[in-house]
Each structure stands twice: as C-alpha cells, then as structure tokens.
Design goal:
Layout (H helix, E strand, L loop, with lengths): L3 E3 L2 E4 L2 E8 L2 E8 L5 H6 L9 H14 L5 E4 L2 E3 H6 L5 E5 L3 E3 L4 E3 L2 E3 L7 H8 L6 H8 L3 H6 L5 E3 L10 H19 L4 H13 L22
Parallel strand pairs: 5-7, 6-8, 7-11
Antiparallel strand pairs: 1-2, 3-4, 9-10
Length: 228
C-alpha cells in the first residue's frame, strides 16, 4: 500500500502499510519509506510524516498502547521525529547494529513523559557544533541515539547484527537476521494473554529513564555535566 490513511486528513506518503506472513503467521506491517533518489525523497517527504500529525501521532500512540496483539518494532536505518515514536510503541523494539533512533524530546504519552531521547538529528547536531555534517558519527555517539546506547538503557530489547559494510551490503542475510528476532520475540509474546500484553507494553515505557524525589543534594556533591 502506498500510504496510510488518517481519519482526519489525507494519505501520508511517508508511511507504508501491508499485510503479509512469516512462517505461516499473519502480520500487519507498518513502516517508513524514504525513497532511493531525490525525486522519491521529495515524494516521500524524506520519510517524515506530515505535520497534520501532532494530533494524529498522539492518537496513534494511544491506540497502539491498547492493541490486543503483540507489537514488534525494528529500526533498520535512521528513525527520527514523532512519527518514529508513533510506530515504535511496541512490546519489543529491536535495532540494526548501525541504526539510530531519535524523537522529539518533549513527547507526552498519556501520563508518561519520555525524556531520554534526542530531539535533533546527528547531521544537524554536527553542523551546529562542529560546522560539518561529516562529524555526524561523533554527534550520534554524544547524543546517545545508537543501537548500543539504546540497548544499554533498555530502550531497545536487542541489537541485530549487520554484515561487513552495513545492511545494504547483503540485504538477504540482514533480512534473515530480522526474521529470526521477530519470530523469537513473537514466540515469547504469544504466551501472554491480552491483559499481559498490554501491561507488558506499558511497563516497558514506564521503565525508561528514572527520577528521584525527596532527597536533597548538597551543591558540593553535584556532578558537573560534561561539556561536548
């Protein structure tokens, strides 16, 4: 399907959907499409959902948290903006080894406040701090948006290995790795009843980040933040 309909507005060219199967089990697939050249990039709005989205994305997140089936998300490249968060509301989120995931920092999810994501792309950050987009890898490391960082902070459930040179060097092999983690995750999630699935999904996001109340910190004990 070439776009996903929204009840309140038009089709979104950045989002694609489809129905398929893996090993005889039916799946609903939802993903971003960026395009392979300049013309397709423009047509697909560089994989960024249209701004009608503020309300639509919020409604989407609310709906996904209440779905009665397992949801598995895989970041295969560069997942950014609120749209990435909207289709990332999953029981389990996996990331390819060289992928990145970042969304708007001030995103409210029902009563949940997510604050551990970056609000700027590596390229934009590099251009601001180092005056060159070539420093994007360094920026990505500082922003903590890599697969390894997300796994470390328990945002991603696992990191999917890529072949030498990246996923595009051997897409068939990479696809098999993705298939493996999806089937393994589905086997685990398939043992849960509806209430357990919904609770599992909500608790996953409520466990992201941390806070402390009622404990005063003496100024001399405060840790100075590292300046990039």
């Amino acid at each position: 399907m070439g776009g996903t309909p929204r009840r309140s507005c038009r089709l979104d060219p950045a989002i694609v959907t489809g129905i398929g199967s893996i090993d005889g089990k039916s799946f609903m697939f939802i993903g971003h499409r960026k395009g392979r050249n300049t013309k397709e990039n423009i047509q697909r709005n560089f994989a960024m959902p249209t701004p009608h989205g503020g309300e639509a994305i919020a409604q989407n997140r609310r709906t996904m948290f209440g779905l009665k089936v397992p949801i598995i998300s895989v970041v295969t490249g560069e997942g950014g903006s609120g749209g990435a968060l909207a289709i990332g509301c999953a029981n389990k989120l996996f990331m390819l080894e060289n992928s990145a995931f970042y969304v708007a920092r001030r995103c409210f999810l029902s009563n949940l406040f997510l604050s551990n994501f970056s609000e700027i792309s590596p390229e934009a950050c590099a251009a601001i701090l180092w005056k060159s987009a070539q420093a994007a890898p360094k920026a990505a490391e500082k922003l903590r948006i890599t697969a390894q960082e997300h796994y470390k902070f328990k945002i991603a459930y696992g990191v999917i290995p890529e072949p030498l040179g990246g996923a595009h060097a051997d897409p068939v092999w990479t696809s098999q790795q993705i298939k493996f983690v999806i089937t393994q995750a589905l086997e685990e999630l398939g043992k849960m009843d509806t209430e357990e699935l919904i609770s599992h999904r909500m608790l996953k996001y409520r466990s992201i980040g941390g806070f402390q109340e009622g404990t005063p910190v003496h100024p001399e004990n405060e840790k100075k933040h590292e300046v990039i």
